[in-house]
Design a protein that fits this description.
Layout lengths: L1 H33 L5 E14 L4 E6 L6 E2 L4 E6 L1 H26 L3 H33 L5 H30 L3 H26 L2 E3 L4 E6 L6 E2 L4 E18 L11 E6 L4 E12 L7 E2 L7 E2 L1 E8 L11 E5 L1
Antiparallel strand pairs: 1-8, 1-14, 2-4, 2-7, 3-6, 4-5, 6-8, 8-13, 9-10, 9-14, 10-13, 11-12
Helix pairs in contact: 2-5, 3-4
Length: 330
């Protein structure tokens, strides 16, 4: 009986040992055949956005689009009411008209009536000079013959010189009326016109800002103010996503960057679309000391930093949206 029990016990041990060996062999085969599961790195689709804002403050008069609308470059997005800018336009236009009138006056010279009046004064001065000259010559002869006194001769000479000065002054007034303003005055008037027109152009640019248009094709993602609300200078009115400019961003520890460099093509999966696509790495950037890090050993010999890796699709991915998850297997 003892031998039989011992034999049965040995059979049980052999069976257990055989089963254990089979389990170990199967596990080893499975490990060698399948290897370890690939590590999954999850990223996210992102998109280029730009904000629409105005250089002038005002009140939202009309919103032509809403969130989710697709817009083309040049489409009107919003209209702003800015009465202060309109008032400044009237002022600038009035100043420009006044400056232009002054320039025309400087370029055209005196009016016809002014020229005629100056010509008449010149003729009068010439006539007076002629009479004074004749009187002086007669007095000179009589003075030489000692018929008149020296005082009478001096008075005639003074009248003659006075007539000469009056004739020269009249000639100058006539020449000024004919020639118009000096060249410096004409240049100054032209410069004033240019300055006034510049002010009009400046206000015109502000008026254009009251009608906000799309700068690029895209999709409206956010609209901030409501109709009737006031917006200040540079205040964002809405955000537009440029749907043709998308990329994926991954946060990858440096110990997983062995085969990843700028220009590397990655095969990724987009679960929301249930499709795979190829992306090319365009940039890699250290996220800094504030980012998540992991010590490789308990003693903390060195830290593994996290890098921000951006990759763009090598071809357009239909229906992809910002925020969708992107899976990269290592």
């Amino acid at each position: 009986m003892a031998d039989k029990a011992k034999e049965q016990h040995n059979n049980i041990l052999l069976a257990v040992a055989g089963f254990s060996a089979v389990v170990v062999i199967v596990a080893l085969i499975g490990f060698l055949a399948l290897g370890r599961d690939p590590e999954v790195i999850q990223g996210e689709m992102e998109v280029e956005e730009y904000r629409v804002s105005s250089k002038v403050p005002g009140r939202i008069l009309e919103l032509r689009v809403k969130e989710g609308d697709l817009v083309k470059a040049g489409d009107t997005l919003a209209i702003i009411e800015a009465p202060d800018v309109e008032a400044k336009m009237l002022q600038a236009q009035s100043a420009a008209e006044a400056a232009q009138a002054m320039e025309m006056m400087a370029q055209n010279g005196a009016r016809k009536e002014q020229i005629q009046a100056a010509a008449q004064l010149l003729e009068q001065a010439k006539a007076g000079l002629e009479i004074a000259e004749k009187s002086f010559n007669r007095m000179k002869v009589l003075f030489n013959e000692e018929v008149v006194s020296a005082q009478k001769f001096d008075e005639a000479e003074a009248m003659y010189k006075s007539a000469q000065a009056q004739m020269k002054a009249a000639q100058s007034q006539y020449d000024m009326a004919v020639n118009g303003a000096r060249i410096e005055e004409r240049r100054a008037a032209t410069a004033t016109v240019g300055q006034a027109r510049g002010a009009v152009d400046e206000v015109t640019s502000y008026i254009r800002e009251t009608v906000q248009v799309a700068q690029m094709d895209g999709e409206v993602t956010d609209v901030y103010p409501k109709v009737g609300e006031l917006v200040g200078t540079g205040t964002p009115i809405m955000s537009i996503a440029v749907m043709d400019d998308q990329w994926a961003t991954f946060n990858i520890r440096e110990d997983h960057l062995k085969d990843i460099t700028v220009g590397t093509e990655l095969t990724v999966r987009i679960p929301a679309l249930d499709k795979e696509t190829t992306m090319k790495v365009t940039s890699m950037k250290d996220k800094g000391s504030f980012a998540v890090w992991k010590a490789t050993k308990a003693s903390g010999q060195y830290d593994q930093k996290t890098f921000e890796v951006k990759a763009r699709p090598t071809s357009a991915v239909e229906d992809v949206r910002p925020g969708m998850s992107v899976i990269l297997k290592k």
